[in-house]
Amino acid sequence: MHISYNEIHQAIADCVEGKDVYESFKPTLIIAIGSGGFIPARMLRTFLKAKCGKSLPIQTIGLVLYDDNLDKYDPDTAVVRKTQWLNYSHGEGTGISLQGHNILIVDEVDDTRKTLSYAVAELTKDAEKQRHEYEARRKEGEPEWQQPKLGVFVVHNKIKDKKGSLPADVLESRYFKCMDVPDNWIVYPWDALDIETHQQRADERRAGERAAKKAKVDGDQ
């Protein structure tokens, strides 16, 4: 299933507006899961800026699903591994604190949910570690730790049984999906070697979907 840049751009715009992403969560920090979440995160920031009037900071993390079976990838046995993570050190002003942030984790697709589950779990552990460190050095009269909140934003959610899980509070009110899609292989435009051919195939798919929808409407009349 070939997806075009225009489709992704419009889907994110519609989701931000239709699901009140900013109004309901008020994100203050975007964390993009690499590499599929990079471009959606940048698009998302544009539409959030239209809501809040400022460009939200984007941090990146790298996660891969690794399978020891080199002959055939198996989602049941694949495990998530870090290839890049946030810098929490305070040297030279480059470190980041999670305290008080409403963090929106962005990926292109919620497939098995293993990657998203891992990201949320690891960031939750990092926040707890930061809380302990903050409380240990907090002096009398200084403000108490402000717990960060985590949310998830994906372009596509595949309709399938998930191998990973997300906290109930995230799923209930801080899980934003642009659209549900069947469990088919998705080809994103940033993976295309020939973008014109990719666009043509995306257009053909959309034309087929419109024709099928029209045929169904005509058949129901």
TrEMBL record:
GO terms for biological process: GMP salvage; hypoxanthine metabolic process; IMP salvage; XMP salvage. It comes from the Eukaryota. Residues 201-221 are annotated as: Disordered. Keywords: Glycosyltransferase, Transferase. SUPFAM superfamilies: PRTase-like. InterPro entries: PRTase-like (IPR029057), PRTase_dom (IPR000836). One of its GO terms (molecular function) is hypoxanthine phosphoribosyltransferase activity. PANTHER family: HYPOXANTHINE PHOSPHORIBOSYLTRANSFERASE, HYPOXANTHINE-GUANINE PHOSPHORIBOSYLTRANSFERASE. This is Uncharacterized protein. It comes from Chlamydomonas reinhardtii (Chlamydomonas smithii).
